[in-house]
Amino acid sequence: MPKKSKSNKALQAKFQNKLKQKFVKAEHHKALKARVVALEKEFKALRKMLEGGARKASPASKRRTTKKPVARKPAASQAGAKTNNLQMIKGIGAVIEKKLLEYGVNSYAQIAAWSDAEVEDFSQRLNFKGRIEREGWVDQAKQLLAG
Is the C-alpha dihedral spanning 71, 123, 111, 91 positive or negative? Predict the structure, then answer.
């Protein structure tokens, strides 16, 4: 009788492990193939829209978009106001200054003239709940205007 190098149970366990590994790989490949098919369909739809001149967004891009607040133009009396370094106001850094400039705010006079409603409006636009009041931007702007 020939010698058995490994028992039947050990061979069966090894065989089962190999089968499981191949099954997991096969399932992974199936999932990847399904994703590729879905992306190809979306790509074809986008190409068709571009060729047809349609402007409708795909469902995937609709999820990623966020609404930006509409920028108001500064009032005519404030449009000619001198441009100031808004970073002199404590709490306004380079990023916030850039956003304020995009909204047409470029001087201490404009910030000093903000009403409570405008403070609330800019708090929402800049995603700062109560920060403008807490840091006293309006008061700081008035002090900087006074000299």
Answer: negative
